[in-house]
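Hi C.,

You asked whether I'd gotten around to modeling the 583-residue construct. I have! Everything is below, sequence then structure, no commentary in between.
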Amino acid sequence: MLKFSHIIVLALSQSVCTAAATDTAGFKCRCSYGDSCWPNGNQFAQLAAQVSQPLLLPTPPAQPCYTSANSSKCAEAVANWNDGNWRANQTGAMQSPNFETFTLPNGTIEACYINTMLGVPCGQGSVPVIGVDVRSIGDIQAAVKFAAKHNLRLAVKNTGGSFLVWTHNMKNITVHPSFTPAGAPTNESYEFAMTLEAGVQWHEAYTAANASGRVLVGGISPGGSVGAAGGWLLGGGHSILSPSFGLGVDNVLEISVVTSNGSYYVTNAHQHSDLFWALRGGGGGTFGVVTSVTYRTRPAFPVIAAFLLASANTTVPNAALSQAFTELVRITPQLTDQGWGGYSLFTPSSNGSLSFSHIYVVPASSPGPAAQANATMSAYLAYVQELAAKSTLPGGPTEVQLAFTTPFASWYDWYNTVFATGAPVGFNAEVGSWLLPRDVVENDHERVAQTLLSIPGINWYPVAGGAVSNVSASATGLNPAWRKAAVHVAGGITWPEGATLNEINALRDELKNNTARVRAFAPESGAYFNEASLYEPDPAHSFFGSHYTKLRAIKSVYDPIDLFIVAEGVGSDEWDKTLTCRK
């Protein structure tokens, strides 16, 4: 058991601090465990007396299997290792466990693997070992002030990450039959807006919205474990409904936040509008700790869903799959103009086969447009079936297991059928992405398709275009590249537990090269902050574009001590790679 006086706020921070604990104006490095400035037991006890819950002592989620392999806690960890919602309930867990690990200067990886047979000792890795289980604005203010006073590195976590401000248990959901933003004229009113506290996850938000006969534009993940009022929104928030109703940042009415001096702001278009602008796309926990978000909603509506699953006995696309994807690229701007949003994935398997899967959805509340959208998608699916039936195409046979459109009575019915459960998380992964502009897709679709087909496991996400393109680039702090994009292209790497740093770095080099090949189509474009490479050569441009200078200026106003620094976020370029010391 860790003693209170030996608690480490952030195991990731290993550098030596030379600043005085209370001198936040002139510090160079954040204070770390073992430094003379580190808070003592009495100081932590004072913090504990100011918050509503006992201080958290997070541990790696696999630790029970090292302390008592036959315990129910170990069995629980093994059984739920790939469950996103279980991981969200663990203070020491991330959705991808590689972010729980820490690489030492000698190349050794400190981790706590679920596979105890690897013979690797269970280490704390990058899992913080103290934090605050915040349940109120007052709790957050106390935690933030403590971190600022003692010059600690602070990170905010709702469903997965680091002196931990854990917002996961802030679960209040308020449905407003009529909502007027603070400071707005009384005639500015929105029907059935929903206020979600910082710990609400999308599956909880969708259920509450459905109970009121409403729909939220939100994130999609297996089991709905992603937080609905945190990083998803702050990075932009793409949704399968975005081509019809815009991104998450386009559907926000109000955001409440605690800043680095402990101030509480209710931001919207009428008050603290600069901060409201920055929070909508400025990335991560860069400006403060978001306490709640109020979204506009829409009346429930029926949808048309499209499903495709085709496969071939090859690990590279054969002629039929290549032509099928090329045609999809060609018609993507038309699909998003009609409101279709979705996900297309190429997935190589270990048995030497390749699958091409496709899940799309479009609102069907307008009979004419819905019929036209259905006709476009049905024609495409018929084209894929025709390709698969042509035995003369080179590259071997292609089998189409699914290819159809079907109606659902409501968007929630579709979501509950398709995404209430799904692909697991809990595996080591890193990603890279790029936004391809509409003109590139329209004018060079064949070269785009063939290039992407040569990248294993590429994902084609038409979650841009349509309504996303109809919003002014200056309306929010979001990267302007989103407003010109037709599609979000993402890829990634995975590796097994126990892989060496050299093996992981070789995969990272592959990811860098693949991302660079996609970026080359439109270097002036950008990437989605929430699904992006940790190795972008110019993060400020890639993630924020022409908005970076304004975002940095706003951060200087609301976070003058740079308490909130996130990887590749606004201001991070002024810090070292560990985000511990200023350059």
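If it helps when you're writing up: The radius of gyration is 24 Å.

Thanks,
B.
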